[in-house]
Amino acid sequence: MPEPLLAIDNLVVEFKTEDGIVHAVDGVSYELYPGETLGIVGESGSGKSVSTLALLGLIPQPPGRIVSGTAMFKGRDLLRLKKKELRRVRGNEVAMIFQDPMTSLNPVLSVGFQLGEAIKTHFPDEKDDAVKKRVVDLLRLVGVPNAETRFNQYPHEFSGGMRQRAMIAMAITNSPSLLIADEPTTALDVTIQAQVLEVMKRVQQETEAATILITHDLGIVAEMCDRVLVMYAGHIVETGTVETIFRAPRHPYTIGLMNSLPKLTEDEEWLEPITGAPPSLIDLPPGCPFHPRCFLAREKCRQENPPLAPVDVGAGHASACHFSEELIGRKSKFSEAVA
Amino acid sequence: MTDLRPTQGPMAPSDDSVFPATQAIEGEVIAPEGSIVAAVDDTQAAGLELKARSQWSYARMRFFRHRLAMVGLVGLVIIFGAGIFAGVVSPYSYAEIDLTHILQGPTHAHWFGTDALGRDQFTRVVWGIRTSMEVGVFVAIVSTVVGLIIGAVAGYYGGWLDNLLMRVTDLVLTLPLLAVLLTATALLGQGNQWRVSLILVFFFWTGIARVVRGIFLSLREKEYVEAAKASGAGDARLMFRHILPNTLGPIVVNATLAVGTAILVEAALSFLNFGIKPPTPSLGVLVNDAQQSPQTPTGGTTWWLTIFPGLTIVAIVLCVNFLGDGLRDALDPTQRRMRA
């Protein structure tokens, strides 16, 4: 195994609200290797975004608070960097692509100017025409037609897909070694999604950046990622390679997620949801956070929170379920498709 | 990759511009096939440029089509122009005393009449405009800059700093203008226009600070600010490069209106003898002077002494407000539609 590019250990993030403390991320640990794409899936509020925003110090504090944990990135702990050092990391070594391209670009500044800013922030001595040339090249790389004209245009003159391309271009301006994409296609319609994913793949090849792809779309995970983390209520409940996660999921939540998706090859009258609702992050149920909704739940689950333990599906596959062995042979809707 | 939008040809550079579509409707080009192409051709034939328009060019267009704003602009250019070129415009010197012609009504030689010392009222009004203009513009610019910085810092950082700055703002707002000015003039001695301006600035920055703070408070939560932060921008860059341009509309409008208010307040203060002191002519001083000599030696009213400087004040403030309204409408980016 090569050295991990990023090693997060026991990250705990809390938010203080009037109703109590929200345990958004509760003891998350994972590693990311150079050049790989890691998908983080989970429903809204499972801590997907927060766990990555914490890395760049983008959690508003207060009300947020990073309680504990380390995030080693190239020999430094990102969670303990000074404000100034962190600023040098942001957009330079670690870049972020946001969910909504409609609101992530400043409406009163031209797109070219904003992309140029991303360069100038880190390299203030760069000459203006060199910056412009680089920005135009980047726009071309992400497939923005007429890049020269587009350079001077404003965000309102860009369509959603074009804006997300511009955002991707902005993220890769300084050739980061880690790219965090927070639901990059959620705000786009399906045909544009495909194009943007295509662009992201190309960009990854070009920059060789490791990528964390946060999404709740399992289809995107299957297409883009090497490895997957499944998060539930601030915990990692299962992790493994894309292949093993889809072929042999070993956590009831993962199975539930997959079964709740419609299958395009069959005419389905009813989808199969996971019963119940996600737990309140202020008042997590004791034991395994998933037990109130779990079809395997029994007394032990109500008392002990299961650790993320390796299962014998494949290298690096781990599940946080006391009874993961009972799931052997249990197929998800996608098992055959992957196998 | 299949992009449905044409990447070449006349549509390409302007595919988001409103123009081809509007033109198609206005020109009633309803070709059964290739209607888009027809519309574009028609647009070009009509000589309309297909160039991408920036927000500022839209704003400029809206502004120049705003009739009242144009009236205000022309009015201000004439009045302030007279003030700037007071030395050229005025036929006499503002201090030139001619005791043989005191308190005369408007004549060919003295368009606005003469005052109790036989000085030409037109000359004094023109120089008064100059003084008032200096006060208005100076107060507007300086108080905008001060208010901008205080408001931006308060809104951006929030927390205790915001609290402190806003309480100071509240404090200044509660100070009675007249009492403070009275004290200030007593302490600082005779007031010239710069001294009065500085005191006015002390009262005027509060409005802009509050407006700017409000905008910063809401804008700092915007995703594009977070995105800029995520790409490594520091506080100063976020405040002045990313957030500030979004606040320019309201700031420009406020600053413009501040010119009018400052002139009005200065006139009122000078009229009450707390502002600019003679011999510097300001419009307020002139109205005050008129009070001193209500009657001509023959017993008639000296209406010209009050009416001309008074009307000038009204005209300036009205023009400034028209201009401000026009700017407000023009700089509102949600307003794409042109209107008269």
Helix content of chain A: 25-40%
CATH C-level of the largest domain in chain B: Mainly Alpha
Strand order within the widest sheet of chain A?
A: 6-7-8-3-9-10-12-11
Specify the biggest β-sheet of chain B. Answer: none
Largest interface: A-B, 42 and 32 residues
Q: What is the third-level CATH name, the topology of the largest domain in chain B? A: MetI-like fold
How many beta-strand runs of chain B? Answer: 0
Structural class of chain A: alpha/beta
Named at the architecture level, the CATH assignment of the largest domain in chain B is Orthogonal Bundle
Evaluate the radius of gyration of chain A: 21 Å
Over all CA atoms, what is the radius of gyration of chain B?
Answer: 27 Å
By DSSP (H or I, 4+ residues per run), the number of helices of chain A equals 12
Question: How far from one another are the termini of chain B?
Answer: 45 Å
Helix content of chain B: 55-70%
Order of helices and strands of chain A: EEEHEEHEHHHHEHEHEEHHHEEH
**What summary fits the major beta sheet of chain A?**
8 strands, mixed
Descriptive notes:
Chain A has 339 residues and is an alpha/beta fold. Chain A folds into two domains: 6-225, Rossmann fold (3-Layer(aba) Sandwich); 230-338, no CATH class. Chain A has twelve helices and twelve strands. Chain A has helices at residues 48-53, 83-89, 111-122, 128-141, 147-151, 160-172, 190-207, 218-224, 242-247, 252-259, 299-303, 335-338; strands at residues 6-17, 20-32, 37-41, 64-73, 76-77, 94-97, 178-182, 210-215, 227-232, 235-241, 309-310, 318-319. In chain A, a hairpin with a 2-residue loop joins strand 9 and strand 10 (235-241). In chain A, helix 3 packs across helix 4, helix 3 packs parallel to helix 6 (160-172) and helix 6 (160-172) runs parallel beside helix 7 (190-207). Chain A is globular. The model of chain A has no long low-confidence stretch (mean pLDDT 84). Chain B folds into two domains: 12-52, no CATH class; 57-331, MetI-like fold. Chain B contains 13 helices and no strands. Chain B has helices at residues 19-26, 35-45, 55-64, 67-84, 86-89, 121-157, 159-174, 177-188, 193-219, 223-230, 235-271, 283-292, 303-331. The radius of gyration of chain B is 27 Å and the shape is elongated. Chain A binds chain B through residues 56, 58, 87-92, 95-96, 98, 100, 103-110, 114, 117-118, 121-122, 143, 145-146, 149, 152-154, 156-159, 167, 170-171, 173, 195, 198, and chain B through 1-3, 5, 7, 12-13, 16-17, 52, 54-55, 222-234, 237, 241-242, 245-246, 248, 333.
